[in-house]
Design brief:
With about 525 residues, the chain is an alpha+beta fold. It has 3 domains: about 100 residues, Uridine Diphospho-n-acetylenolpyruvylglucosamine Reductase, domain 2, CATH 3.30.43; about 120 residues, Uridine Diphospho-n-acetylenolpyruvylglucosamine Reductase, domain 3 (2-Layer Sandwich), CATH 3.30.465.10; about 230 residues, 3-Layer(aba) Sandwich (Vanillyl-alcohol Oxidase, Chain A, domain 3). The strands form 4 sheets. Strands 12, 13, 14, 15, 16, 17, 18, 19 and 20 form a 9-stranded antiparallel beta sheet that branches. Strand 5 and strand 6 form a beta hairpin. Helix 1 packs antiparallel against helix 3, helix 6 packs across helix 11 and helix 11 runs antiparallel to helix 12.
Length: about 525
């Protein structure tokens, strides 16, 4: 008998459901002991994490098993919380938004089904991680690159479905999805795009198919369970270059963001640009105590000490260029002409020809170095992010940065921030670091996230992605037409999933709170 049950399900009924799940996937792939469930609780939880505890875990190995599980879940009204690998660190990891859901762990579905060198695409199951795909490309000596997020523990497909990003020209991961296989809430399987044709030979070549295109419907939603997806890869470029930028003053953000955003819009810079503070850089290679042990937020004077010792600016960015030699060198010259007069110094680019050893960050090599930041305050570290979407405008971004920095200082939190500059927008990534065993840092983090949410909403900015504890709160900020979008999402959810079986409450859809 488990210590927690799915919502609205009796102990007897749940035991029957578990028996049926075991008949589908085998005894070893259904886990419901306290020890098993504890291993799936968010390692960054602000508390014991049991407010998001699961009732059991099921680990299918095939699309057919997922179908059978979904049909059995409908029979017993047991809600499922699908995760690809459960490595969504900082957003709740594998834990469900609604306590008592059964986690549907797809990590055993880890096949790289196809990689096409000529067309530069692959077909993956959701359990394929960034390291898995990277090593496959390396072992097969395929001249194809992938894009990776700052923390590369997770699933290639899972990250793309949550609109995760990387820092190469293919860094908008959801845009690289081409064709999905999806188990619907009634157990039926569909394929989107050209895959809707039974003998399709172009499933990973053309996204849209015939009629409405449904791929976006399954991103950040709970309308189905993706069991396969195509991903476009980057052909290895003839030349790659990179330059590190350090902007000396806090107020440099205004003019620097305007210049960088313009270069990004024009595709002189082809990737999402991270523009971050000294604490952001220092937290991956040191701890707070190495710099400051006083109360309150780290003073600006200490940040300036970091800058001197680590060769940083108040704002720091890395730019990579990719393509034919002439284009790369021409774009490097454009960047020099745009930035050098304002920075007062020459920019030093590094250039690599195809096949030469190069800096890993420029190529999109998986890494987990960014996770070192959780050690900043010591103890059992964790982080929570708030990343609202802003227009790509230097004045707007700088005004917001000043306000956010003041809120961090008001609560005594060290200002860890970056602006991720896309083609037409910016995400202001405000990371909140804490020690899970220190009530002071936990209470500060909770207070700060509430303040940031209210401040962003007052300016017309909203988060694009949410931690499981804040999904309804973020959904509340999308309030046009008396929350017309949420009502539309809930209508679609009710039509496709009348028993609310798949991830109730995910991103505020079908919430039962």
């Amino acid at each position: 008998m488990t210590s927690i049950l799915p919502r609205g399900v009796s102990d007897a009924s749940f035991n029957q459901a578990l028996s049926e799940f075991r008949a589908i996937v085998g005894n070893s792939a259904v886990l419901n002991s306290d020890e098993d469930r504890q291993s799936y609780i968010d390692p960054y939880a602000m508390g014991d994490g049991k407010d998001h505890d699961s009732s059991a875990i099921i680990a299918p190995a095939s699309t057919e098993e997922v179908q059978a599980i979904v049909r059995a879940a409908n029979k017993y009204k047991v809600a499922l919380w699908p995760v690809s690998r459960g490595k969504n660190l900082g957003y709740g990891t594998a834990s469900p938004a609604e306590a008592g859901n059964v986690i549907l762990d797809l990590s055993r579905m880890d096949k790289i089904l196809d990689v096409n060198e000529k067309y530069a695409h692959c077909l993956l199951e959701p359990g394929v991680g960034f390291y898995d795909l990277f090593y496959h490309l390396q072992e097969k000596k395929l001249p194809l690159w992938m894009s990776v997020p700052g923390n590369s523990w997770g699933s290639v497909i899972g990250n793309a479905l949550d609109r995760g990003i990387g820092y190469t020209p293919y860094g908008d991961h959801c845009e690289q999805i081409c064709g999905m296989e999806v188990v619907m809430p009634d157990g039926e399987v569909i394929r989107t795009g050209m895959g809707a044709m039974a003998n399709s030979t172009t499933w990973q070549n053309y996204k849209y198919g015939y009629g409405p295109s449904w791929d976006q419907m399954f991103m950040q939603s709970n309308f189905g369970i993706v069991t396969k997806a195509g991903v476009w890869l980057q052909p290895e470029p003839e030349m790659t270059a990179k330059v590190d930028l350090a902007f000396a003053k806090f107020e440099d953000a205004e003019w620097a963001i305007d210049i960088l955003a313009d270069l990004r819009r024009r595709d002189v810079i082809q990737h999402n640009i991270v523009f971050g503070t000294p604490v952001r850089a220092a937290s991956t290679m040191s701890q707070r105590a190495d710099w400051y042990e006083g109360e309150g937020a780290i003073p600006d004077s200490v940040c300036e000490e970091m800058m001197k010792k680590l060769g940083l600016g108040w704002w720091n960015a890395r730019i990579s260029l990719h393509g034919h030699e002439g284009v790369v060198k021409a774009n490097a010259d454009i960047i020099r002409k745009a930035l050098e007069p304002k920075m007062g110094k020459e920019l030093e680019f590094q250039f690599w020809a195809k096949g030469e050893p190069m800096e890993k960050a420029a190529q999109g090599v998986p890494t987990t170095m960014g996770l070192n930041c959780v050690n900043w305050y010591g103890g059992r570290g964790g982080h929570l992010g708030f990343s609202p979407v802003l227009s790509a405008d230097g004045k707007i971004a700088f005004d917001y940065a000043k306000k956010v920095k003041s809120l961090y200082q008001e609560v005594g939190q060290d200002y860890y921030a970056s602006f991720t500059i896309g083609r037409r927008h910016i995400n202001n990534v405000g990371l909140i670091l804490y020690d899970r065993d220190d009530e002071t840092t936990l209470n500060r983090a909770k207070k700060l996230i509430d303040m940031l949410l209210k401040e962003a909403a007052s300016r017309g900015f909203a988060e694009y992605r949410s931690h499981i504890s804040y999904m309804d709160a973020i959904g509340d900020t999308y309030d046009y037409g008396n929350h017309a979008l949420r009502r539309l999402n809930n209508k679609v959810k009710a039509a496709l999933d009348p028993n609310n079986i798949i991830a109730p409450g995910r991103n505020g859809i079908g919430s039962r709170k």
